[in-house]
Amino acid sequence: MFIKKLSLENWTNYEKEEFDFSDKINVLYGGNAQGKTNAVEGVFYLSTGYSQKKTNDKNLLTLGKDKGNLALIAQTRYGEVSIEAKLYAKEKKKILLNGVEVKKIGELMGNVSTVFFSPSSLRVVSDAPEDRRRFMDMSISQYKRSYFYALQKYSKIILQRNNLLKTQNYPIIKDTLPIWYMQLAPVAGRIISDRLKFLKELAPKARYYHAYLTDDKEDLQVGFESDYYGEEKDIVNDFLQDLTLGVDGDIEKGYTSIGPHRDDLKLMVNGKSVKHFGSQGQQRTTALALKLAEVEIFKEKHGESPILILDDVFSELDKPRQKKLVEVIKNMQTLITCAYLEEDIFEGVEYKKFKIEEGKRVE
Q1: Domain membership flag for residue 118
Q2: At what angle do helices 170-213 and 129-143 cross, to 10 degrees?
Q3: What mean pLDDT is predicted for residues 314-319?
Q4: What is the number of structural domains in the chain?
Q5: Residues 262 and 290 in one domain
Q6: Residue 286: its pLDDT value, please?
Q7: Is 30 left (phi over 0), alpha (psi -120 to 50) or beta?
Q8: Domain extent at residue 108
Q9: What is the pLDDT of residues 273-288, one digit of tens each?
Q10: What's the mean per-residue pLDDT of the chain?
């Protein structure tokens, strides 16, 4: 799949602009804070309904504007897809898929798939478990809507269960919790099972790309850290049993101490934790390998490549690794942002360039 056109109006620092992208590599370049990242962020927002910046939608509007609009037209193996987002300062956003308003964000997932690498992607390697869970959740949700809905349901039930635990009203808790058990266990089982399947596919692909980018000098191992493993039905049964046995401890703590909200990824390079012992370059290469592996999974699930977004990807890579990366992505639509356009990196490769200054295309 590839995006033919992106339109931005009152989006961050873009008053009004359009991009006609190539179905191969597209390079957006220019100085800092000119709008390169904002443009590609618009693509991710339209494909998922979420901002990488984790900010309120009204903060994505151009300063002083009451409403904004962004839209794309994409070509997929199933035909042309259009997505439009209408943003308002004082109202809820509206998202239209092929002209029809989307009532649930889950309906948007998978229509135009994107894989986004940015400096913030390093959080997957270096920060808290929730960043690694978010990586898994966003990826799986784009090709499996049932997973996205399971996440939403699980979050809602956990919130209700935790609120009940915090009351410290033991008799009411004892009477009420079994109802939550029967709702929570099947959803938790689905989430953990889907994560296990995802990582079984992801790990060897990430290992391959990491070795490729490091000239076989480093070996990346991706593991899953969870309280539960095995078949989905076994996970459900074990989780249900642990919920029952752990109720006294949860009442004392005031929160649910087990479940998929505690899962994590274990990332090791040459036998050492990348988070604790990896250099910034190693952490960046690890995050990039995970993203390239994600692309391969999407390709297998959809029968076509997703749109790959690489924001400031070259800054920590030396020239040989930059060229190796370009060789990998040359036949899929990729949106790259960088401060300076070094054309020798793209020698012999088809690409289209866009120079950005103050929220405008000037080239």
Answers
A1: no
A2: 80
A3: 85
A4: 2
A5: yes
A6: 95
A7: left
A8: 1-113+306-363
A9: 999 998 888 899 999 9
A10: 93
Binned at pLDDT 50, 70 and 90, residue 312 comes out as very high
Using a 10 angstrom Cβ sphere, with 0-12 exposed, 13-18 middle and 19 or more buried, the burial of residue 343 is exposed
Give residue-wise pLDDT tens across range 45-87: 999 998 887 678 888 999 999 999 999 999 999 999 999 999 9
**β-bridge pairing 334-338 and 25-29:** parallel
Residues 6 or more apart from 262 whose CB is under 8 A from it? 129, 226, 227
CB neighbour list of residue 98: distance below 8 Å, 6 or more residues apart: 81, 82
Same domain, 211 and 71: no
Between 145-166 and 129-143, two packed helices, what is the crossing angle to 10 degrees? 140
Distances (CA, A) of 219 to 215, 316, 318: 10, 19, 19
**Which DSSP category does 62 fall into?**
P
What's the CATH code of the domain at 21? 3.40.50.300
> Which residues, other chains included, contact 362 with Cβ-Cβ below 8 Å and sequence gap of 6+?
355, 356
Q: Is residue 119 part of a domain?
A: no
Confirm whether 251 is domain-assigned: yes
Range 327-343 average pLDDT: 94
What is the chain's length?
Answer: 363
Exposure of 261 by Cβ count < 10 A (0-12 exposed, 13-18 middle, 19+ buried)? middle
For residues 201 and 243, membership in a common domain is answered with: yes
pTM over the 0.85 mark: yes
